[in-house]
Structure formats: structure tokens, C-alpha cells
Amino acid sequence: MSNEEILDGGDRMQIDGRDSELQRSSKVPQGFNVDYLKVYYGKLFPYGDIFKWMSYGNAGKHPACDPSYFGRREFSFSLGNDTYCRYQSFDSVTEFENSIKKNCPFKIDIGPVYRVNPAKRFAYAQSGSDGFTPVERELVFDVDISDYDDVRHCCSGADVCTNCWPLMTIAIKVIDTTLRDDFGFNHILWVFSGRRGVHCWVCDGRARRLNNDERASIAKYFHVYKRGESVFKKVSLTGSVLHPFLARSYTDVLRIHFEEKLLCNQNLLSSEDRYEKILELVSNKSITDELHDKWQGHRRSSNTEEDLNITRWEQLKHVLQSGKQKGLRRCVEEIVFLYTYPRLDMEVSKHMNHLLKSPFCVHPKTGRVCVPIDPAHCDEFDPTTVPTLSTLLEELNMRGDNSESLNELESTSLGQYITMFRSCFLEPLLKSCKEEMENAYNANLQQSRNSFSW
């Protein structure tokens, strides 16, 4: 099917009932192109939901609302001709929608809320004013699976499959639990990046108002894995006992996923080149030599390959945790942390003015939509089944005349993700924003009354 057959007038899908049989039997060609993107932006992109989210309750009629709030938010567009347009701003959802439909950006990034409209930054710069500074920004985290290439063997780079995706599931569980239990945040959005990782948006008012030093402190709280080729021991757990946050992460998430999924999925101990990498983490040469000789002499037996990984891991744990060699018990924990603990891009979280890709964008390399992930059910998320541009267009074509009661979004596989975004994240967030706004307004009103009570 050609683009001309898919599109009507450049931005409308052919869903004429007269051609319904042809549409049901036709497949939209796979891939990513600007024509597909025009249809997506014209029919499916949730402008209203993004606007409500980014307004944080300020789009209403309450006297405490700030009508300039959304207009001070920075958006950036990456266009198809390699043009990068920063400091885009919009005063209304209509203006926001019209600009995206007109420009058809390959990527939309979201930045901070500034003190003034970012589109007018030059005027403030020429006047010598320091008004162009960020005042709010969600606390964000970025985890890429390519940063785990030294501990996964199924894929590399931007490639991902169901065998290595549990590494992202681990990151979601550890970070989400810690943000809620240790920092008291409630409104947290997790989003699939569209290709190789996950993004986290912490949207509580308290989180949005953190300064750079406070953001860096929270990022440092999570810091365990040390990057750099010159760093030999990338995980070093110090102290006689683990920090309670690390102990909880190890017991509730890391150890379970390592032993039940990654150990066998990645065949971490099935071959000499792989188990040698793990033995290098043990600081006692006599033990490593003993295990190496034992494993090398029994490459395969009646055991299956999966059994071999489990058997060798139990042998390693027994030797290290037997207590015969002082100081080696921690090695087991360090191995598990090295292979499973979240590897954060720390700079993303430290700075208020960092840009991050908007949810519901489409990744141009994969054609997959950046859909939200429910952290309560992240074990069920499969990146290989996320809707793509071509599948969404095919679903629109398949509607025919039998789905008139459904809107276009509800008739596609994207509908379930937007429903989840609204019910699990947006609605509770806006309710909280309304309560916070109301409380602040009443407190200011009472303060004003008290000032005149003399």
C-alpha cells in the first residue's frame, strides 16, 4: 500500500466504508515516515492530556490559578530536516496542537518552567535582566539498557529483547519504591523511551520546586554503580551492614530477579568467558582457582544449561558465605548489585534545565510510541509489543463502519495506555494539585484577614 493509499490529503486516513474490505485485507507498510506521523498527530496524539499535565491545575478558573504557567514551559522540536528548535512555548492547548501539526516534529522534548515566557528570552537578555531562569521542573531519571552491555549477552547497543528487559523492570521497581518510601513522593510517571530504556517523571509540587543542589543530593542517594573504563570495581559496598535502602532493594528486588531471571536468561555462568568475569569480582585467588578448575572440568553433564547456571551460582554462594574466609560474604551482594542495580544517567537528574522526551512521542528508529508503564504491573510490560506507527494506522483502517460508537483513539492499541495514563497518573495528580492550590489560597486569604484584624 502506497502512502497515497494510506493518506487522504496528506493528513487523513482513508477509512471510507466503501473500501472497508480492502482495508481489512491490507497491511500498512512497516516503518517510520513523515506521512505516518502526520496521521498520528492528526488523530491520536493526546494534546489535551499533555496540556492538563503540564498545567498542574493552572488551566482552571480558580482565583489561585496562574494563567501564564503553561506558557512559561519550554518545549523543543526535532524536525525531520535535522533542525532542532528550542524554547518553543504555547499559551493554549489549541496553539500547542496547531504547532505540532504544522511542524510534525520527529521528537518533542519538554524542559522547565521559566520565570518568563522562554520565547521572549532575548528581550530579557538585552535588558540585562536575570528573569530568564527556570523556576520549576519535574525531577527526572533516565535509564538506558545500552549502559548494561557488559552484563547482558543477548543484545547490545540500542537492541532489546524480553531476556534483557528485566533490567529495566528492576530499575523501575527500585527507583519507584525508593522515591515513594524514602522521599515521600506520590505522583510518579514511568515512560518507555520508545527504544532502549525508561524515563521517570516525579511530578509532586515539592519535587518540581527542588533546586539543582537538592536534585543532585537525591541522585547521589541512588549512586552505587561507578562508570568509567578505568574503574575496576564498579560496585563497592562499604560498611559492616548495607544501608536500609540498599538492603531493601537487594532483598525485595535485586536478588530475586538475578536468581530467577537474569542468571539463566543471560547464561551468566554457562561458559568460561562468562563465569571468569564473575570470578574476577572475588578477591580471594585460592577460591577463584578452585571454582575455576571445578567448573572447567565439568563443562556439561546430565544437567541442562539452565541447571548449570543455577548449580554454579549455588556453589559460589556456598563458598563465599560459609564464613571460612573473612570478608567474602559481601562479594555475593556486590555481584548481584553489579549485574542488576539501576545505572542512572546522573546528569539528567541533577539539573533543572535538562530536556526529556515527551510521553507519547514516536521513536523514529523503531516507530514505537513512548507509552507509560504502570510501576505496579511493570513485570508485565513487554517492549516488543508496544504500538508502532504502522500498527496504529492499520488499526485505524480496520475500524470500518462497525466502530462508530468508539472514538479513533479507543479503537487502537494506544487507547489502553492513555486510559492508564489518565486513571493511574493524571487524575490523582490533578486532584492533588487542586487541593494544594486550594489550601495555599485559603492560607493566604486567612493571612490577609489576620493582617487587617487589628
Automatic annotation (TrEMBL):
Keywords assigned by UniProt, alphabetized: DNA replication, DNA-directed RNA polymerase, Metal-binding, Nucleotidyltransferase, Primosome, Transcription, Transferase, Zinc
Cofactor(s) essential for the protein: Mn(2+); Mg(2+)
Protein name as it appears in the record: DNA primase
Regions annotated as coiled coil: none
Region (Disordered): 1-26
Basic and acidic residues bias (residue ranges): 9-24
GO biological process annotation, one example: DNA replication, synthesis of primer
Family membership noted in the UniProt record: Belongs to the eukaryotic-type primase small subunit family.
UniProt-listed Pfam families: DNA_primase_S (PF01896)
EC number: 2.7.7.-
Molecular function GO labels: DNA-directed RNA polymerase activity; metal ion binding
GO CC annotation terms, alphabetical: alpha DNA polymerase:primase complex
